Structure formats: structure tokens, C-alpha cells
TrEMBL record:
Subcellular location: Endomembrane system
InterPro entries: Azg-like, NCS2
Membrane topology, from the record: Multi-pass membrane protein
Recorded superkingdom: Bacteria
Transmembrane segments: 6-23, 35-55, 61-79, 91-109, 156-174, 186-210, 238-259, 306-324, 344-360, 372-395, 452-472
Family named by the database record: Belongs to the nucleobase:cation symporter-2 (NCS2) (TC 2.A.40) family. Azg-like subfamily.
GO CC aspect terms: endomembrane system; plasma membrane
Name of this chain's protein: Xanthine/uracil/vitamin C permease, AzgA family
Keywords of the record: Membrane, Transmembrane, Transmembrane helix, Transport
Record-level Gene Ontology MF annotations: purine nucleobase transmembrane transporter activity
Length: 474
């Protein structure tokens, strides 16, 4: 059976462990603006589990969606910088509006697919690299916050994080070497190498549990789950006036734009174009008509994401996007592994963790799973994934049509802008600035599609609006 064949299982495990950090990091980010951690965790679980079972069923691929860490950081920064004009509940309303707009866009237009096709290669690289830089910064921010809040011993804990990142790099390089040079390597060894992320999480969590007990005992109750709208804090008074409405609409429009222009892990970017690249039935040669199957997967994938982008904020988390970790699927053999079995495996593993949490919560015998959701324990994964995405952005070979322009240093200018600025000033500024930098240094060989003109105009308007907010405040 395809579901229990080795390659989909390895790919599913790799996606699960590479995305495991979202369970600890996403609620922790939203907690800073007042979102109940238990509700954010439940929303994160539901979006990942239900969204990816649904996605695997309809698209027949294993590409994963989840609440967007980048948007969660944007939500946090927007609320904190609004001078108390809006709070997290206003932000969730904006995310619901944005999610509905994403759903409408996904069902009734082909904009999301067309945007990926029309963006210049250098701007695509910038979009990927910016997300990578954001993950790296968030990893360091989580660690710094833990040091300050829970009195971690900087030298010992910092060394543990550093060792965790080094182990991940070594695991990854060894696995790549095995895959590229030793087709006859033992299956058990290959499987172990694909568990690189869980080894680091277990080691980091065990270290903190044994040597930093004060930190572990001070963790928020991340192992509790609750429904957002049953939380008493939601029913306390919160005000709506003209300024708040305008900020909510601006907020929603920005989140919508960020989601539909997201590049790294989307079906349009990750799924292969050529018939011979991959087979849908697990065989070596792709069946006739695969191209139409790919187009169908892209369309249904965006629609599935649109549905859960609108539902996720109702449960206390941010809209879903296709995660950049989907790029990891390209590393599974020369052709990659994109089957629905991958999605079923990954979603099942997230469901298993959720079941363990719920059993522990309602049985009265709390299972210490929160040790393994520790934000610091997943910090090495955040940093490693961020570095991996940045490296892919700079060193992946672009399409043949764009290859000549890569000899020019200015080709990488939008990528450099994204890496340097995303972690400093946020997504709302960086994407427009990356697009502006493209027009300033565009190489003669750079290609772009017609919708990129409208994206550029929209980015310019967005830059002016957010620049005014930056100067004059909310």
C-alpha cells in the first residue's frame, strides 16, 4: 500500500518534525498580545490536522498548510505598535476578514497561481529569504525572552541551542550525502536520519527539564486546549470606532496581500511542471495527463487553504498559508515525493500529539507533553529552517529562462533587501521594498508577468500608507 511505503512515510515524518515548532512558537507569539494560549494552541492544532487531511484528500499531494508564523509576528507587532488603539480581538476580526478575502480570491480567481508565475525570479527568492530571516530572528527572540523572563543560565542554555543547530546541520548534510551517493544505504539508517528534528527537540527539552527546572515550571500551560469564544476575556468590553474600523480594514487588506503573494511553499512553486518530474501513482514514469492533475492540485490546494485561512482566526490563531518547509519534499530522491500519503502521515502525527494532550487534560493525569512544546526547545528548528530557506533562496538554480541574469550581482539585490529588512521592520514594509529594489536594479534578462505591474502598484500604495503610520502613528 502506498500509505505505508517508505518514501511517503519518511517525507511525512520530515514535514511533521520540521513544522513541529509551530505548536510551541505560534501560541507563544500570540500570548504576548493577550490571546489565550490554550485557545491559540487548539486553533493551531485544528487548522493543521483538519486542514491537511482535507488538503491531502482533495489535492492528492502532501503539501502542508498551517497558521502563519510570519503573520502571527506581524499581528503581534501591529497590535503592540498601535498605541493601544486596537487589541488582539480587533486583530482576530481583521484576520477573519482577511481569511474570507483569501477564500474568495482562491475560489473565484487564479490570482494566487498567476502571482507566483508572474513574479520575477529574484523577487521570488527575496520572498523566500525574507521568511527565512524572520524565522531566524524569531528563534533568537524566543531564546532571549526566555532568558530574561525565566532566568535561564545564559551560558549553559545558549550552548544547548547552539549545539542543537549544529546537530541539525550535521544530520541534514549526512542525510543529503546518503541520498545522493548511496542508493543502497540501509533503510533503518535513512529513517533515523529523517528523524533529525525530533532528536533535537527531545534532547533540548530533556536538558531544560533536568538542568533548568525553574524555566520548565514557569512555562505557560501550553498543554491545555480551550475554545476561544468560551474564554471570559473575549466577553469583556472592547470598543469599535471609526479609527479602529479603518485600522482593522487596513490590517485585513495587508494580511490578505501577504497571504496571496506568499511564495515559498505554495503548490505553484513546489509542484513540478514537467510530466517526467514525478509520478502520481508512485511509479517511475509519470502517467499521461499528469499536467492536468497538477493544475487541479494547484487549484484545489489554494481553495482548501482559503477555507482554513478564514476558519483559523475563529479559533484564536492566524490565517493558514502553505509552509516553506514544503521545499523539503524536493530532497526526497531525484523526483521528490508529493503524494497524498505524505500529507496523511504528517497530519496523523500532529493528530497523535493532540490526542495525547486531550487525554492528559481530561483524564486528570497531566502528561508532560509541554516539555516538548517548550519554545526554547524548538528554537534550534526555527533557526535551522530559517537558515535553510535563506540558503535555498540564494543558491537554488533558477529556471533556464532566468539563468543568464544570475551572473549579475543586482539579480540578488531584492533577496538581500528581504534578508536584511524583514527581521528589522516586518513583512508589511519588506515586500514592497523588495519589489521597489527590483525596479531600481532590474537586469535586462529578468522576466516578469503582467500581474506584477499591479502588484508593484499595490506595493507602492502599501508602502506609502505604512510609511505614514510609521511617521504619524495610529
Amino acid at each position: 500500500m502506498k500509505f505505508i511505503s517508505e518514501k511517503p512515510m519518511w517525507a511525512g515524518f520530515a514535514l511533521f518534525f520540521s513544522m513541529y515548532y509551530v505548536l510551541g512558537a505560534n501560541p507563544d507569539i500570540l500570548r504576548e498580545i493577550g490571546v489565550p494560549v490554550s485557545a491559540a494552541l487548539l486553533g493551531t492544532f485544528l487548522a493543521i490536522i483538519v486542514g491537511n487531511f482535507s488538503g491531502a484528500f482533495f489535492t492528492k499531494t502532501g503539501l502542508m498548510i498551517a497558521p502563519a508564523i510570519g503573520i502571527s509576528i506581524f499581528v503581534k507587532n501591529f497590535v503592540l505598535n498601535s498605541d493601544h488603539v486596537i487589541d488582539w480581538r480587533h486583530a482576530m476580526v481583521a484576520c477573519v476578514i482577511a481569511g474570507l478575502a483569501v477564500a474568495v480570491t482562491s475560489f473565484f480567481t487564479d490570482w494566487r497561481d498567476q502571482i507566483v508565475k508572474d513574479l520575477p525570479e529574484s523577487v521570488k527568492k527575496g520572498a523566500k529569504a525574507g521568511i527565512g530571516a524572520l524565522l531566524v530572528k524569531e528563534g533568537f527572540d524566543i531564546f532571549k525572552k526566555a532568558e530574561e523572563s525565566f532566568h535561564l543560565e545564559p551560558r549553559g542554555a545558549g550552548m544547548a541551542v547552539a549545539i542543537g543547530v549544529v546537530f541539525l546541520v550535521l544530520f541534514f548534510l549526512i542525510r543529503r550525502s546518503i541520498e545522493n551517493n548511496s542508493r543502497s544505504a540501509l533503510s533503518a539508517l535513512q529513517f533515523i536520519m529523517h528523524l533529525e528534528f525530533v532528536f533535537v527537540v527531545v534532547l533540548m527539552s530533556s536538558y531544560l527539564w533536568l538542568f533548568q527546572p525553574d524555566y520548565i515550571s514557569a512555562l505557560p500551560e501550553t498543554s491545555q486546549v480551550s475554545i476561544l469564544w468560551l474564554e471570559p476575556i473575549v466577553r469583556t468590553s472592547w470598543h469599535i470606532n471609526f479609527n479602529v474600523c479603518m485600522l482593522i480594514l487596513l490590517f485585513a487588506a495587508t494580511v490578505w496581500f501577504i497571504v496571496i503573494s506568499d511564495i515559498p511553499g505554495t503548490p505553484s512553486e513546489v509542484l513540478p511542471e514537467k510530466l517526467e518530474d514525478v509520478a502520481t501513482d508512485g511509479t517511475e514514469t509519470a502517467p499521461k495527463g499528469y499536467q492536468s492533475a497538477r493544475d487541479k492540485a494547484v487549484k484545489l490546494g489554494y481553495r482548501n487553504d482559503g477555507v482554513f485561512a478564514s476558519l483559523a482566526p475563529l479559533f484564536g490563531t492566524t490565517p493558514t498559508i502553505y509552509y516553506a518547509e514544503n521545499q523539503i519534499l524536493k530532497s526526497f530522491g531525484q523526483t521528490g515525493e508529493y503524494s497524498s500519503a505524505v500529507g496523511y502521515w504528517a497530519a496523523s502525527l500532529f493528530a497523535l500529539v493532540f490526542i495525547v494532550l486531550v487525554i492528559g487534560q481530561f483524564s486528570g493525569h497531566q502528561i508532560p507533553i509541554d516539555r516538548y512544546l517548550s519554545p526554547v526547545a524548538v528554537t534550534p528548528i526555527l533557526i535551522f529552517i530559517g537558515l535553510y530557506i535563506i540558503s535555498v533562496s540564494f543558491f537554488d538554480i533558477p529556471s533556464a529562462a532566468a539563468a543568464p541574469s544570475t551572473r549579475n550581482p543586482e539579480y540578488y539585490f531584492p533577496t538581500a533587501v528581504s534578508v536584511i529588512l524583514t527581521s528589522r521592520i516586518g513583512l508589511e514594509y519588506t515586500l514592497p521594498l523588495s519589489i521597489l529594489s527590483f525596479w531600481l536594479v532590474r537586469s535586462a534578462g529578468e522576466k516578469y508577468g503582467p500581474s506584477f505591474i499591479w502588484i508593484s502598484i499595490g506595493s507602492g500604495v502599501s508602502l506609502i500608507i505604512f510609511g505614514a503610520l510609521f511617521v504619524f502613528g495610529s
